[in-house]
Amino acid sequence: MEETLLKTNFSFPKQTAVYKGKVRDVYFIGDDYVAMIATDRISAFDVVLPKGIPFKGQVLNQIASYYLDATKDIVPNWKICTPDPMVTFGYKCEPFKVEMVIRGYLTGSAWRAYKNGERELCGIALPDGMKENEKFPTPLITPTTKADEGHDENISKEDIIKQGLVSCEDYEIMEKYTYALFEKGQQMAKEKGLILVDTKYEFGKRNGEIYLIDEIHTPDSSRYFYTDGYEEKFRNNQPQKQLSKEFVRQWLIENGFQGQKGQAVPEMTPEYCHSVSERYIELYEHVVGDKFRKESSADLENRIEQNIVKAINDYTV
């Protein structure tokens, strides 16, 4: 089994702080820069699962880097460079406390709620009679709060502004960027035989300007269907073949785990972890349109440390 990176404990030149999220470890360098390490941790239902997925961090980081480059004409973003296959080095931004989720189809958690009789999503009324995986007439923005710990919660645009989480002016800019990024992502996916079903974007501010931050269009933040077979499967009420983390959630649900108190994570065998790794690599190759090249997983921490130190020396004064 390949070595996986589950935790980091670096001390870099000019390091001022470190934030460890569910999947990424973010090291703050001076006042203006961050080094974001995509680990091989995997989370579902807001729980970090106990085993790592080989090459997952590399897949996430390289897809995000690809899309940050492809969309920088739409919105400024935080990326400066990718000094390591698992690392992005970029500008520090002050993040907004909401995530901009955008949905093109009724699926995932939205479908589970709809199936249980809910007809409103983040203040948006949904019609009766929709089917699982049905396309919305126009994409819906369904924001969530951004929790430091525990579960993110759905929230309406009106409540975001009313609670002062984001100003009306800033929200409308983020809304415009979200629609434009999703349209670009759908277009790029279509060229590769995929449907970008839904995704989320995070934004922050730097020097008074709104930036796209964090990841974009990765299997952790997005859901993809295959274009080929979508219509037939939809007509026949069959599950879509998809490339996303949803298959991990479904496996957990089937094994009695949805992140609720008292539930135990099912055993993640080496064979299962390898199968998840292969799905992530498959998504990379479809989304990027290029063969995935596995970097050596030997001495991961030393490699990452050396590459980040070089970036700090190259880009900071």
Structure write-up:
It is a single chain. This protein has 317 residues and is α+β, with helices and mostly antiparallel strands. The chain is 32% helix and 26% strand. The protein has 8 helices and 17 strands. The strands form 4 sheets. Strands 8, 9, 12, 13, 14, 15, 16 and 17 form an 8-stranded antiparallel beta sheet that branches. It has a 5-stranded antiparallel beta sheet with strand order 1-2-3-7-6. A two-stranded antiparallel ribbon has the order 4-5. A hairpin with a 2-residue loop joins strand 14 (194-206) and strand 15. Helix 1 (56-70) runs parallel beside helix 7 (270-288). The protein is globular, with a radius of gyration of 19 Å.
SSE layout:
Layout: E1 15-20, E2 24-29, E3 33-38, E4 43-44, E5 47-48, H1 56-70, E6 79-84, E7 87-91, E8 94-95, E9 98-106, H2 108-115, E10 120-121, E11 124-125, E12 134-141, E13 144-145, H3 157-162, H4 168-191, E14 194-206, E15 209-213, E16 222-226, H5 230-235, E17 242-244, H6 246-254, H7 270-288, H8 300-315
Antiparallel strand pairs: 1-2, 2-3, 3-7, 4-5, 6-7, 8-14, 9-12, 9-13, 9-14, 10-11, 14-15, 14-16, 16-17
Which residue ranges are poorly predicted, with pLDDT under 50 across at least 5 consecutive positions? none
**N→C terminal distance:** 41 Å
What is the structural class?
alpha+beta
Helix content: 25-40%
Please count the helical segments.
8
Order of helices and strands: EEEEEHEEEEHEEEEHHEEEHEHHH
Write down the oligomeric state.
single chain
Based on CA atoms alone, the radius of gyration comes out at: 19 Å
Number of strands: 17
Q: What share of residues are in beta strands? A: 25-35%
Mean pLDDT: 94
> Main beta sheet: strand number and arrangement?
8 strands, antiparallel
Shape: globular
